[in-house]
Structures are given as C-alpha cells and as structure tokens.
Amino acid sequence: MITRTVALLGDGLYTWDGGVDYLSNIAGILEYVDRNRKDYAIRLYLVLPMEYPPVRLARKLLSKGKRDDVARFSYIIKVFESACQDVQVVYYRKHIKKLHDDKGRSLQKTLKKIRADICFPVLRDYYPELETPWIGYIADFQEKYLPELFDEQTLTYRENNSIRQARNTQYFIATSESVKEDLEEFYPDGYKVFAQPFAPMAADSFLDTSGAELEKYRLPETYFLISNQFWTHKSHGTAFRALKLLHEQGLTDVHIVCTGKMDDDFRNASYCDELRESIREMGMEAFIHFLGYIPKLDQIEIMKRAVALLQPSLFEGDPGGCSAYNAASLLIPVIMSDIRVNREAEGEDGITLFEAENPDSLASCMKDALKRKQRAVSVQEIREHNRHNADKLGVFYVDMMEEVIKDYRARKQV
User: Fold this and answer.
1) CATH architecture of 2-137+388-413
2) For residue range 331-355, what is the model confidence (pLDDT) as tens digits?
C-alpha cells in the first residue's frame, strides 16, 4: 500500500468563499480515496498562514475591522469539518513579501514537520525554493476578459503574479479546460497543467440536511436560488429582470432567494446599491430575498428546496462556480449562463444553459423549470451519482500527485 501525506495550502483561498469550497471539495475527494481504496492511504493536513500577532492586529486596525484572519480560519475549519472529518490543521508563519521574503522557509519547515509528500494548491510565487513537491494554481484569468472590473494596480499584480508562476512552477492544477487553455495561451512555458474533470461530488454531510432550522429565513414557497458573492461579474441583475418578466407573464408567486456576502466588491462599491435601486424600480422588493452570509448546511438545505439554482455569472474558473458544483452533486437542477467554461458542463443531467446577460432567455428557462418541477431524488440515487464522480476524481488526484512526486524525486537525484 502507498501512504501519502498531503498538505492542502490555504494561503490565498481561505479569505473567500469560493476558495474555501474548492479546498473542502478537494479534501472530500481525498478522504473518499483514503476510505475506499485498499492500495492507497492519505493523511490530510490543512495548512494555514498565521501572521505575527502585531502584524495581524495592524492589518485589522488598518482595514477598520473588516479583516479578521482568525475568524476566517474558524470558518474554513468548520466547512472542512462538514466535508472531511479526518483533516488536521497546522499553521506556518506567514511572511510579508514587501518587507521580508523568506522564500518559503517557514512553510517548508511546517511541511517537513508533518512529513508532507506533496503540497497544493499554491496560488502565489512565494515559494520557489520549496523542497516538498508542490502544484501551482491560478483560479482564472478574469482580468483578461473583463479588465474594466479591475483597477490598474490589481491588473498589474495579477499579471506579474501569473508571469512569475508560469516561470517558476513545474505543475499546475486547473479547475477547467478553459483555465488550462488560457494559461497555456497567455503564459506559455515549460510546465504541465492537470485539468480537473467536471464531476461534482457532495460531502456526506450534504446528503441529509433536513435538520437545518430554516424558519428564521422566512422562505417563500416557490423560489429560485442564487448563491454567489455580490460581485459585479456575477450579474445578479439579469436574474432579477428575468423574474420581473415571469411576473409580467402572470407567474406572480415566484421568488428569488439570494445567499452570499453583500457590499463586498471592492472593485465596485456601489454594486449592491444599484441592485437594490433596480429592484425598487421594478417593484420587486417583496419577491427578491437577501439572506446574507449563512451557515453552509443551511445553504445546502435551502438549495434542495429551490426550483433550481441560478448562475447568471459572466465569468467563472470552473463550470458554474462552486454553487453549481454543489447543486449538481445533489442532482438539483441548475440554470446557468452559456459562457465558455459553463459549456464544459453542457449535456450533464439537470444542467440548462441560457444566453448570458439575456433576461428573456433566462426567464424562458425558469418557466420551463417551473413546468417540470423538481422530481424527488432519493439519497441512494445521489450516493450512486457521487460514487461514480468520486471514483473519477479520485483517479485524477492520485494520478496527478504520483506523477508530480515521482518527477520531483527523479530531478532531485540528478
């Protein structure tokens, strides 16, 4: 039997919901491998960057209380516990690149202590001298397609980081073929990219969330769900206008429920105010509900009760983003925009595409979903669906890790 110690690196991911979901999804896959393969065992660690206490306090004060890494650590650990029970959490001393670049020594010290065989996903080119085999990761290249959503400083940072990563990284993991193609086109170099297949898999804790207490949310009877952060490119307005069209057609008992952090898009601070104003102008205040940032298992139960999940986003790094991944893993219908990355999921059971930014197209798909109504899906059916996808993802991750480890060891012996 082969036994591997795997370090999942949280730097750059633990601060945003999509990153937390991505990491916890990987953890769930690796735990499945450990439990179900007799020839392969995995010891799993979540590795988080802890800044010096004075620096942590200074950051919190300078950001007027908005930045609280300890709270974010608590959140990611809770999400991990719901997706993967066997993960252990360790910390390393995070350096400040502008003041002192330790080239990954602190991280390497922690990896050596836990005897890690491999570390991923690495988002930044901070660790070019790691002795432990590692795999790089770039979430997407949104700045190449929607540069108007970024200021010049952010555009420059993303560009420089991608250049450095492509130059210093031997291996990358991508969450879609689209990201793989973009990386190879925009920053060609001598690396290899492993593109994860679209094979949504649910954590065991997601299968039965009937115990979630949802009374406090005062949910309507018939609703579609949007589970996104409120960023400009998520295009919530398209869905709200589609709902207005349904009401004009006489379907006045239909609502949209939204979960996710509001007023958080630093690139467009007025986005949520503009959405609220447009809702008022359409007279739809009573039919669009904002629940805010809610516990993961509450979100999943709300998703199960929806007619379908809506994903009107104009850009994602993987098909439909994490909310579509969660819904598809539970065989919940998904209606998402026909952007390039989403077309990778076209043909999957329960997934419908509409023309991006077209409320009429989305309204038509929503109307069809209302006519069909969501059929009852048994837990056994979901388990079988997940087992098939978990086997597929397990092979992908094991093959990727073994290739990287083998290559690192071969080059070390030269």
Assistant:
1) 3-Layer(aba) Sandwich (3.40)
2) 999 999 999 999 999 888 899 999 9
